Amino acid sequence: MIDRRKFVGGVAAAPMFLAAPAFVRRANAQSTLPIPGLYSLSGNFANVGSAMNDGSAWAVEQYGTVAGNKLNYMLLDDRGDVGEAVRKVNDLMAVQRIKHLVGASNSAVGLAAQREAFLRGGIYVHQAGADEATGKDCNRSTFRWTAACYSAVNSTVRPLIDKYPNAKKWYTITGQYVFGDSLLSNCKEVFAEKGIQHLGNSYHSLSDREYSGFIASALATSPDVLAICNFGNQTLDVIRQAISFGMKRNTKILAVWSTGLDQFQALGPENCEDVYFGCNYWHSVDSPGNRRFAEIVKKKTGEVPNYLQAAGYAVAQMLMEGMNKANSTEADAIIKSLEGLTYEGPTGTETIRAGDHQVIKDYYLMLGKPKAAMKDKNDFCDVVAATKAFLPVEKTGCKMGV
Amino acid sequence: MSIQLLIFQILNGIGIGMIYFLLSAGLTLIFGLMRFVNFTHGALYLLAAYVAFALTRSGISFWIALLLAPLTTTFVAIVIERLILRHTYRMAHEAQILITFATALFIQEMVILAFGPLGQNVSVPPQLSGVVFLGPYVYPVYRLAVVGVAAVVALLVWLLIERTKTGSILRAGSEKAEMVGLLGINVDLVFMATFALGGALAGLAGVLAAPLRGVDPFMSAEALGIAFVVVVVGGLGTLSGALVGGLLIGLVQSVMSSVWPEGAQFMIYASMALVLLLRPAGLLGRN
Amino acid sequence: MEARMFPNATTFVVLVLLLGLPFVVPTTLAIQIAAFALGTLSVSVLLGGVGLLSFGQGLYLGVGAYGAGILLRDFQLGLLPSLAAAAVLGGFVACAVGSLIVRRQGVYFVMLTLAFAQMGYFAMLAFKRFTGGENGLTGVPRLLSLFGYAIDDARTMYCLAAGIFFCVFLLTQRLLASPFGSVLASIKQNEARSEALGYAVGLYKTAAFAFAGAIAGLAGGLHVLSLGFVSPNNIELEMSQRLLVMGIIGGVSSPAGALAGAIFYEAVAETLSLIWPRWLALIALLLVAIVLFVPGGLWSLGARLTDLARRRKHG
Question: Quick check: A79 and C133 CB within 8 A?
Answer without folding.
Answer: no
